[in-house]
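User: Predict the structure for this protein chain, please.
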Amino acid sequence: MKTKLIIMDGAIIGTTTPADPNGYHLVDAPEGFDGDLASVEFDAEAGVPRLVLAGVQARRIAAIKAEAAAHLARTDWKMDRAREREKAGWAQLADLAAVLAEREAVRRSSDAAEAAVLALTDAAAVRAFAWVPDAVPVPAPRLLTHEQFIKRFTPTEWEAMTAAARASTAMDAWMRRFALATVVSLDDPATAAGVQALELAGILAAGRAEEILGAVPSEAAA
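Assistant: Here is the predicted structure, written as structure tokens:
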């Protein structure tokens, strides 16, 4: 049975069906009406109801948020598995980083989808809008354990760094920051700046900073 909109004084005040004997002025609901009165308005001059763009956009954005949450929930087991395997020493931090990147792609893709919905100017286009959770690719963060990071330096380099930390408050602060970190991110600007400063100070040979900040190693996380 087709839904009817109840019109009173030119405004939509509710919904009903033809079988509901209430005596109100009834008009057919517009195509795409989903029961939310905030998404429809009555054009008194034309005598017809129309979908409200802002209302339809709000409904679609709410749906996108719910869809994104569902996608994230479906990756929870991957996150749990990666963390457990990393703690047990059966996997690399790169495995955890890959899951983090997958989840971040969902968030960024849903944000982009919401922005795209707000940019649409036609209610029908908003209703038909579709998005995918990996539309915005996110590279996996390059994470290292302390042991992995230390192994990137030669024993001589590490000894020189330790000695420099005893003589320089700035170097000591950088070393302490590293010691307190749970993991080391090669993509962290502070990490890059610190390693590059070591090369500028002559503690590392020319070109070593680029080598140390290069691709994530394949050895298992400690």
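Strands lie at 4-8, 11-16, 25-28, 40-43, 48-51, 143-144, 184-185.
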